[in-house]
Design a protein that fits this description.
The protein is mostly helical. The chain has 19 helices and six strands. The structure holds D-malate (MLT). The site of D-malate has 6 residues, from loops.
Length: 428
């Protein structure tokens, strides 16, 4: 393969180097483009633009491949657990038994949050969406740990910020839910492991024993693994560009939480259930809604189908679909909304309209179904996504810092008014 790319503008030839990754992906390095040609590229949504070189996650949209640090998502979902995967993403290698125990115990040590954060929580109305509460509480760590404001401090300070982020995110998430439910908060039970600890903190009620269901714990841990990273998606790109200004890890990740909240990104799993409930409340006629989805003038779009990157199937969806089937069977869940989901899934996988447009069920379709079956309230679905994505955000923020990447500063093509003299319009 050639090592360069040639660009011809107004008959003049410009040559740029090609960059080839470890999976033979090819990029044209245009870092000298403006200096050489005076031109910039235009790529709305950056869908054709590499923002960085990264060794964390590899995905192949055509083949439906997703790997964290070279390990397939299938292997990790089946054989690993969320904390081990978090270690792998952040530090680049699977932990030894000793490293795993230390990492888990370090996280366990920091699950409590400053009592003053409860005063912040009390200031939110119960109508506040848990994602807004989560982003605010997560960023509040900059106030309680001011040393984190200098991301270039000695690495043990950064390690402590990583541990605090992983340890306190579940506490913030559980408290955001309790605020929405109007219930008193629970404190973390450090005798439990990560996912079980979160479930008890979220769902235990005063005066009632709460037994963590191992089926739910295992399914949720698998979901967290499947959401842990996804290369340069919207929220991860947000974390990296905020972090590129040397903002703290807490404010960078809080920005990522806000980006994930959008219905076109992490909010899609909540939109799936809203769509299914609307179909149920309309009488449950899936055929009618499938036809609406095919009618461009209907303004109706099936949520949870297709993907910007995966062209044929989302590898995570395949794993979650099996987990959803297992959980529904084990829990004996019989939910009309889930029946509607299975009919939509069947149509999408068979109907030529959806097959031709690659509108197959994606990770958000099945995760919405499984969260509902696990008894997780719909307003907490995107919070679960954020909790899962946290190790990926941390790993990407760390990599950007370690690679000493420059501040992100994209350019534009200006299309507004050209120079015009000021003439007062009113009587000024
Ligand atoms: C994700 O996992 O972040 C979503 O699939 C969105 C994406 O990768 O663009």
């Amino acid at each position: 393969m050639s090592k360069t790319a040639e660009l011809i503008i107004d008959g003049k030839s410009y040559v740029f180097p090609l960059v080839v990754g470890s999976e033979n992906e090819v990029a044209v390095d245009i870092s000298q483009l403006m200096e050489k040609t005076g031109a910039v590229t235009l790529d709305l949504g950056f869908k054709n633009t590499g923002s960085t070189k990264s060794a964390i996650t590899f995905l192949d949209g055509d083949k439906g491949i997703l790997r964290y640090r070279g390990y397939s998502i299938e292997d990790l979902a089946e054989k690993s657990n969320f904390i081990e995967v978090a270690y792998l993403l952040i530090f680049g290698e699977l932990p030894t038994q000793e490293q795993y125990i230390k990492f888990s115990d370090d996280i366990r040590t920091h699950t409590l949050v400053h009592e003053d954060i409860k005063k912040m929580l009390d200031g939110f109305p119960s109508t506040a969406h848990p994602m807004g509460v989560l982003a605010s509480l997560f960023c509040s760590q900059t106030a309680f740990y001011p040393e984190s404001l200098d991301p270039n401090r000695a690495n043990n300070a950064v390690y402590l910020s990583i541990i605090r982020s992983l340890a306190k995110m579940p506490t913030f998430a559980a408290w955001a839910y309790k605020n929405a439910a109007g219930h008193p908060v629970n404190y973390p039970d450090n005798k439990l492991e990560f996912t079980a600890r979160f479930l008890k903190m979220t769902f235990a009620l005063p005066g009632q024993d709460y037994e963590v269901d191992p089926v739910i714990t295992e399914a949720l841990d698998k979901l967290l693994i499947l959401h842990a990273d996804h290369e340069q998606n919207c929220s991860t790109s947000t974390v990296r560009i905020v972090g590129s200004s040397k903002a703290s890890i807490y404010s960078s990740i809080s920005a990522g939480v806000n980006a994930l909240w959008g219905p076109l990104h992490g909010g899609a799993n909540q939109e799936v259930i809203v769509m299914l409930e609307n179909i149920k409340n309309d009488g449950g006629d899936t055929e009618k809604w499938i036809n609406k989805a095919k009618d461009k003038n209907s303004g109706f779009r099936l949520m949870g189908f297709g993907h910007r990157v995966y062209k044929n199937f989302d590898p995570r969806a395949k794993i979650i679909k099996k987990a959803a089937d297992d959980v529904l069977k084990k829990l004996g869940v019989n939910d009309p909304v889930l029946e509607i989901a299975l009919k939509l899934e069947e149509a999408a996988l068979k109907d030529p309209y959806f097959v031709e447009r690659k509108l197959y069920p994606n990770v958000d379709f099945y995760s919405g179904i499984i969260y509902r079956a696990l008894g997780i309230p719909v307003e907490m679905f995107t919070v679960m996504f954020a909790m899962g994505r946290l190790p990926g955000w941390i790993a990407q923020w760390m990599e950007m810092r370690e690679n000493k990447e420059p501040i992100g500063r994209p350019r534009q093509i200006y299309t507004g008014a050209t120079l015009r003299p000021y003439k007062a319009i009113g009587s000024r």
